[in-house]
Amino acid sequence: MKFHHFQGFEKHLKEVSNEQLGHQFAIVSNSWVERDVLVKLTLKRLSHLYPNYLVETVDFSEGITKVLSSLEYSLFGSSKIVVIKNIDKLLARDLKAFEKVLLGQDPVIFTFTNPLALKGFYPANKKHLVAVDLTLEKPWERQDRLLKWALGYLKKFNVQIQHKDLLELVSAYHSFDLIKHELDKLALFAGSNQKITKEHIDLLCNHSVETTAWKFSESLIFNTSKDVVREGLETCLQLVDLATLFGAFRYHLELALLMKAEGSASHVDSYKNIHKKTLDKYKLALEKLCFKSLSKSYQCLSNYEKLSRLSNISPKTLLNGFVSNLLLERGA
Fold first, then answer.
1. Residue 141: how many CB atoms within 10 A of its CB?
2. Angle at which helices 242-262 and 291-310 cross, to 10°
3. Torsion 221-224-228-230 (CA) sign
4. Model confidence pLDDT, tens digit, residues 245-284
5. Do residues 131 and 118 make contact, with C-beta atoms less than 8 angstroms apart?
6. Residue 323, exposed/middle/buried by CB under 10 A (0-12, 13-18, 19+)?
7. Are 5 and 137 a contacting pair, CB within 8 Å?
8. DSSP state of 26
9. In angstroms, how far is CA 272 from the centroid of its own chain?
10. Where does residue 217 rank: exposed (0-12), middle (13-18), buried (19+ CB within 10 A)?
11. Residue 269 pLDDT
12. Phi/psi of residue 265, each to 5°?
């Protein structure tokens, strides 16, 4: 069973019987915050089905031997639910090592950052897996869900914020990882006042920096003018952190892929948060771009995001590398 919407997956967890729930789950998202949200939601449901089980988390980067060791059943040990993170690193030759695990009845949660990795993992194991892949979620659906998540996240701090102010913040950042960072900062600043104001947002959230990232990303994805890219690149390297830039790139690439897949003349009403003039500009630019090129750029971005988390390569080198690869792919 496979879901491409959060609501469908959430409904499955809440409403199906224990017999239909499944005991092995695959979660795919580009955001580590979102993956953690989905893992916690799944664990909450599994805890009712397996009330005395311990939870053990292992990262696939620790090696397949460590992962398989965590999955081994011990006659004298406690039963457990195992969460395996970053299983994207699983090689095809190692897939057979998981066959026994997937045929078993122990509850396991796998997390992926790359949907392409799931494609190689899911078909062979679809009888045993409940999979949710949110990487193809439409941008406006993601924004609506991000807004609801942000409202729930702020409750843990017992702070309040005007709906319009939170909507503005969510619209500016477009990313679970980025919005969590900003909310943590704002909640800490609000302190005992228990209220986040527009003044707090203007003071702590650098809108000029965010606007710079947003405009540069838009120009790069929808307009490959070398002058625009060169000037924007120099500005961004001085002002904007890499996570902000990569978040903006991801939003615009996802939007471009969606519009290209649906066709420039279809589903126009769906893009309710995009001004008509902006939408027309995007559609005109997409006439010169092919779906294959955009897909390769999206995969390239995922690779560079992973490098930014796992390597010591400088942000400047990573940003230059991604931009160069994108322009090379388009022949710009």
1. 14
2. 160
3. positive
4. 787 888 888 888 888 876 644 444 455 556 677 788 888 8
5. yes
6. buried
7. yes
8. E
9. 22
10. buried
11. 47
12. -100, -5
Starting at the earlier edge strand, list the strands of the sheet with 2-3: 2-3, 130-133, 24-28, 108-112, 80-85, 54-59
Beta bridge partners of 125: none
Which domains does the chain show, CATH number per domain?
2-133 (3.40.50.300), 139-204 (1.10.8.60), 207-327 (1.20.272.10)
Nearest residue to 79 via CA among 117, 108, 58: 108
Instruction: Please say whether the beta carbons of 223 and 192 come within 8 A.
Output: no
Asked if residue 183 lies in contact with residue 165, where contact means CB atoms within 8 angstroms, the answer is no
Structure tokens at 47: 């805890």
Q: What is the DSSP pairing of strand 160-161 with strand 54-59?
A: unpaired
In whole angstroms, give the CA distance from residue 250 to residue 197: 29
pLDDT in tens, 121-159: 766 666 778 889 887 777 677 778 888 888 888 888 888
Largest CA distance in the chain: 67
Q: Which pTM value belongs to this model? A: 0.56
